[in-house]
Structure formats: structure tokens, C-alpha cells
Amino acid sequence: MSDDTGDVIDELFTVIEDRKTNLPEDSYTASLFTHEKGENAVLEKLGEETTELILAAKDNDTEELAHESADIVYHLLVLLSMKEMDVDDLRTELAKRR
Ligand SMILES: N=c1c2ncn([C@@H]3O[C@H](COP(=O)(O)OP(=O)(O)OP(=O)(O)O)[C@@H](O)[C@H]3O)c2ncn1[C@@H]1O[C@H](COP(=O)(O)O)[C@@H](O)[C@H]1O
């Protein structure tokens, strides 16, 4: 893993938490926290991105697979933040399965 990608998930989660607190007008993340559909906005995105991920996998399109995986991880982190959870909750659950 290269140095500039090592902490990218922690950094992303910190940015998401910042957007949740400060709600800048030009932020897509903030728009998910204030969406009129509530949490359904991010849940719908996760559904859409998962379908796109499956199509990329079936096409053996690894570039698209990485793109859709990143979309899913981003929206998953937004969902965890919405539920007042932390990225460490995900780490803890994964570690329990070792
Ligand atoms: N990682 C992401 C990220 N991944 C996906 N998205 C957005 O999620 C949306 C995906 O919805 P769509 O699938 O409808 O969009 P799309 O581009 O047509 O989708 P694809 O075809 O690309 O799959 C797009 O608007 C993307 O911009 C993201 N928006 C923000 N981030 C991160 O969040 C940070 C803060 O962003 P803002 O909140 O916008 O300041 C950014 O610096 C990024 O690090």
C-alpha cells in the first residue's frame, strides 16, 4: 500500500463527520444528511451502487469495480455516521471474525 492511501478511510470518515456537523451548502455529503428522504437517500444510493458493482463484476471490468466499490464504501461510511456509529465499529466487527 502506498503512503498516500494508508489512512484514506479514516480521513474520509473524519471529513464525513465534519460535513455532518458544519453542513456546508456545496457539499454532497451534507446534502445526504439533510435530504428530504432522510436516511432513505443514502440507503437508495447503496442499493444503486451495489447493482452497478454487480454489473461491473459480471463484465470483469476491474476499473469500474474499483470505482463502484469506492462509491459503496463512501455511502456506507455516511450511513455509519448517520447512525452515530464509527468506522471503528466496522473494524471491531471484522477483527472479531479473525
Ligand atoms: N468519496 C466520495 C464520494 N463517492 C461518491 N460520491 C458522490 O456520490 C454520488 C454518486 O451518485 P451517482 O451514482 O448518482 O453519481 P454518478 O457520478 O452518476 O455515479 P457513478 O456513475 O460514478 O457511479 C456522486 O455525486 C458522487 O460525487 C462522493 N462524494 C464525496 N466523497 C468524498 O467526500 C468528500 C467530501 O465531499 P463533499 O461532501 O461533496 O464536500 C470528498 O472530498 C470525497 O473524499
Automatic annotation (TrEMBL):
Q: What is its main location?
A: cytoplasm
Task: Give the protein name, as stated in the record.
Answer: Phosphoribosyl-ATP pyrophosphatase
Q: Which organism is it from?
A: Haloarcula sebkhae
Q: What class of enzyme is it?
A: hydrolase
Q: Its pathway?
A: Amino-acid biosynthesis; L-histidine biosynthesis; L-histidine from 5-phospho-alpha-D-ribose 1-diphosphate: step 2/9
Under the heading InterPro entries, the entry gives: HisE, PRib-ATP_PPHydrolase-like
Q: Give EC number(s), comma-separated.
A: 3.6.1.31
Task: Please tell me whether the keyword Kinase is annotated for this protein.
Answer: no
Q: Which gene encodes it?
A: hisE
Q: Which GO terms describe its biological process?
A: L-histidine biosynthetic process
Q: Which family does it belong to?
A: Belongs to the PRA-PH family.
What does UniProt give as GO cellular component? cytoplasm
Q: Does the keyword Transport apply?
A: no
Q: Which reaction does it catalyse?
A: 1-(5-phospho-beta-D-ribosyl)-ATP + H2O = 1-(5-phospho-beta-D-ribosyl)-5'-AMP + diphosphate + H(+)
- Give the subcellular location: Cytoplasm
* GO molecular-function terms, A-Z: ATP binding; phosphoribosyl-ATP diphosphatase activity
Keywords, alphabetical: Amino-acid biosynthesis, ATP-binding, Cytoplasm, Histidine biosynthesis, Hydrolase, Nucleotide-binding
One Pfam family, short name? PRA-PH
